[in-house]
Amino acid sequence: MAPEDTNSDALSPNPNTVSYTDPLTGLGNRRRLMDKIRKLASERADDPAPFTIGIANIDGFKPINDLFGHAAGDEILCQVAHRLRACLPDGGFVARIESDEFAFILPLVFEKKGAEKIGRMFKDVLSAPYDLGDRNVRLSASFGFAVYPFAGEQFAELLKSADTALYRSKRRGRGQITVYSEEIAEEMRRGTQIEQALRRAIIADEVAVHFQPIVDLSDGSIQGFEALARWTDKELGFISPGLFIPLAEERGFIDSLTETLLKKAAETARHWPAGVFLSFNLSSAQLIDPATAFNVLAVINRVGLDPRRLELEITETAMMSDPEVAAKVVTELQSVGIRVSLDDFGTGQSSLGRLRDFAFNKVKIDRSFVSEITVDKSAEHIVRAILAMCEGLNLKVIAEGIETEEQALKLQELGCKSGQGWFYGKAVDAATTFALIEAEEFARAGAARQNLVIR
Prior knowledge:
Helix content is 48%, strand content 19%. By secondary structure, the protein is an alpha/beta fold. It comes from Hoeflea alexandrii.
């Protein structure tokens, strides 16, 4: 390794002036990075041999400042700068361009595999403990790379491409590495297009709520309905909730979407018979928001729905981001009579620990187990174990994703009392829920009259 001296190779009369240097780390700054990239691109303009630029972002850096103070944060940034400069490949250059972002130029890296290899090396180097004197701190970093000239020929275009790749890495979690491609760019453009359309749809009240029945497996009678979001855009067509709900959460407007959907669902549920409950899904962002219980109660109070008829579903994965705040939110919801169900049980981490730590009212067995219950003995044993455990903990159980009569019969045989899925009914609009309830009440009344005649 023979990394370039960041204070050599002058590109202006005075490259060592403050205007070209980051005062904290001594690395070059954004302006010096820009000059470096422009010079390299100019040198390769006639025969555009590729080179790579990248951006590294320190994951979770802000809490370090909040927890240990800015002096500790500055010390970590200086150590990051030292590590990156020490491990740069031949001819490489590194600059600090934002608070916790570093950019680098790799003149001898020509393609995706090379960029990913360097990214993995940087990732390993930056994941080693940081010495703060009286403590060690571990951090991770996410990376975005862009290869010249395929990702752009000008500085601004190249940096934007690397930033797009970095953004995708951050979306995927911590410590991720992404190299820019047209497919990624199209994915990001599509996401922005959907985001803008969804924001307009929320304002225009165009996101609908459908309801899937939850039934008593012994006779198929309706116990409640789960509210499910549905959205069809005039230009984009049908957009799956599996796409637009995580997008709303990621882009920071899940609260407005949830408020709209909960209000609609509660207005419908208020007119169902008193014994029919409404089940509604909370997002992971809301589960770690201390104001969630207050916000939920405010919505259903305005509508006039009894809190005791509302069940909120949360996933174990959502709880893992901040279990302490999540536990507080769950407790506050239950204190006003709202019940809380653990959704997708068996697919998250440390499920048994979650049942111990959180006072859930119900557990929903994930559809992945239900779909295999009649063909895979291990799935059957897992479901049997879940049901036995929940019985011991006095927890009610709902099986999700029941699609065949065989699955329904097997679940009854194992002792499961409630379920939902296409076998019992797909999600329907609000008007159809009333028709289903009315048909059930009519059938029940007819059976009662028949019993009187027989007697």
